[in-house]
Write a structure and sequence with these properties.
Chain lengths: 261, 275
């Protein structure tokens, strides 16, 4: 082999190792949720769904599942509504100014969730005198979901042909009509994609939820409680469910928005 | 003009009302004092002094662990993004797809996965004792700094791959071919063209992974035995200590020192790759 071929093979080998590193741990979690033995050990002892039955009979599971869905869908709808509006306006600005605003709006992504969570609890409880509830969780999740929605929709608008909207306006459409009949149908897949990304961010969040929920559980805070008290495959079952929910919605989002990095 | 600002208003309201205002209020609290377990308005720097005297060594270990994680993650991510862009051919989109789906694949789930791999009755120990490499399960894998580094690197890797890949994608193939035609060796192409041109992506990846790991407390508690990182002690001020002013001062100390360190690393990087 030529030296070039050897280094290429080495690079590909490295790529394979990294992919395995990214996928294997998640795969093992899923695998052991179907394993008969209560121990997470190889070889597998047999196939079973009993850990899922145990999970569905768990007294805290369904309320947590319901809370997760309520918070997730509310966050998705609100963040998409106001995020799309902002992204559309940003896309008509000078790129320099738009980028400045985008960078500012993305700051919450850079900050550790712990600091967002504890600053929110101080703010809600002491400054606003609010009672902690699902509503405060929703407000907390908006902070981290909104930047993603704005970035995704703004990226789509970069290749959007504004002249079609101008044509509609020239033909007498109002701003709202032009948006509803021209802009929206074109960018709808991206908007749904952004909503699903917001949903999976919310479903997955533990730290901000933990500080802002007061009482009750969402799926991640339930997992936290279970991991602290015991280690058994019921956790694998709920973890598998979380993986399926977040990866499922991400895959659909990617298909719809054609967002590729 | 007016309409445009009106359209941005709701998003700005969320940003200012639920992000900036809480942070500013939280900063103000760091100058308060505590009387009878309740935070009281005050103007003291006692909390900052206490942070340095009581948690100085934890701060040091937090910053060094975060540096290790950010370096490991950024290096791995650069290599992987490089493979996706230049070496994987038709498999590139598939590798990118794997990166994107693991991006949101569960924060707690990922930490739990490593706990069940590295733990005393975990998969690694079972495999090693089963094959006779070890005679009994070893407790050396979990509850160590290495376990924290591995787990957070695993969690943050997709977040680091994406900005670097974005930067690599915009490098023009013609530039690279020109350099090779003029006789540049592969490492010279890497050092003089590829790395400088994706500087922005690399620095975003480093900054993001550094800041997130410096503020994490769940990973150290699950796989690191807890006590080595600031996040753990900050969280305790809220869950059991009820000393908000102290927790706030600790948070801003971590943030300020982290930002300083990130700025130094950025400057060093620019100095190393720019002539």
């Amino acid at each position: 082999m030529k030296p070039v071929q050897i280094t290429d093979t080495l690079w590909r080998g490295f790529g394979l190792v990294v992919v395995l590193f990214m996928l294997l741990p998640l795969f093992l979690v899923v695998l052991f949720s179907f394993n008969e033995s209560a121990l997470t050990s190889l070889p597998l002892t047999g196939l079973t769904f009993s850990w899922y039955e145990r999970l569905f009979e768990h007294r805290s599971f369904w309320p947590a599942f319901q809370n997760s869905l309520i918070v997730g869908f509310t966050v998705a709808v609100i963040s998409v509504a106001i995020g799309t509006l902002a992204a559309l306006a940003l896309s008509t600005m000078k790129p320099q100014r738009a980028n400045l605003l985008l960078n500012a709006l993305s700051l919450p992504v850079m900050l550790p969730a712990l600091i967002i969570g504890i600053s929110l609890i101080c703010y809600f409880v002491r400054f606003l005198d609010l009672r902690l509830s699902l509503l405060t969780v929703i407000m907390g999740h908006l902070v981290i979901a909104l930047p993603f929605v704005v970035l995704i929709v703004y990226a789509r608008m970069a290749t959007f042909n504004h002249s079609v909207v101008d044509s509609a306006r020239d033909l007498g459409a109002t701003r709202w009509m032009a948006f509803r009949t021209v802009t929206l149908p074109i960018i709808r897949p991206t908007i749904i994609g952004a909503a699903l990304i917001a949903l999976s961010l919310s479903l997955d969040d533990f730290v901000i939820t933990f500080f802002t929920i007061g009482g009750g559980n969402t799926l991640p805070t339930l997992v936290w409680g279970m991991v602290r008290t015991s280690l058994d495959p019921t956790i694998n079952a709920i973890a598998t469910l979380l993986i399926a929910l977040s990866i499922g919605s991400t895959v659909i989002a990617l298909q719809l928005s054609r967002y590729r990095g | 003009m007016g309409r445009r600002w009106l359209a941005i208003a709701p998003a700005s309201l969320v940003f200012l009302g639920l992000f900036v205002a809480p942070l500013v209020y939280f900063l103000v609290i760091s100058f308060w004092s505590v009387k009878a377990r309740m935070p009281r308005p005050d103007l003291t720097i006692a909390n900052y002094i206490a942070t340095w005297t009581e948690y100085g060594d934890v701060l040091g270990s937090t910053l060094s662990i975060a540096t290790a994680i950010a370096l490991a993650t950024t290096l791995l991510a650069f290599g992987f993004a490089f493979v996706i862009r230049f070496k994987a051919g038709r498999l590139g989109p598939l590798l990118l797809f794997v990166t994107l789906i693991t991006l949101f694949g569960g924060y707690l789930v990922k930490i739990y996965a490593w706990k069940s791999i590295l733990g005393l009755d975990g998969i690694l120990n079972m495999a090693l004792t089963g094959t006779g490499i070890l005679s009994e399960p070893s407790g050396a894998f979990i509850y160590s700094t290495n376990a924290v580094v591995i787990t957070l690197t695993y969690f943050l890797l997709p977040f680091a791959v994406l900005p670097i890949y974005g930067a690599l994608r915009s490098i023009d193939d013609a530039t690279l071919e020109a350099a090779r035609d003029l006789g540049a060796r592969p490492h010279a192409v890497m050092r003089d063209i590829i790395v400088p041109q994706c500087e922005g992506g690399i620095l975003v990846a480093f900054t993001l992974t550094f800041l997130i790991s410096a503020g994490d407390y769940v990973t150290p508690r699950f796989v690191g035995g807890g006590a080595s990182m600031m996040g753990h002690f900050i969280e305790q001020q809220f869950s059991i200590g009820f000393d908000w002013p102290m927790g706030s001062a600790m948070s801003f100390t971590v943030l300020a020192t982290s930002l300083l360190l990130v700025l130094v690393v950025r400057a060093l990087f620019r100095w190393a790759f720019r002539r």
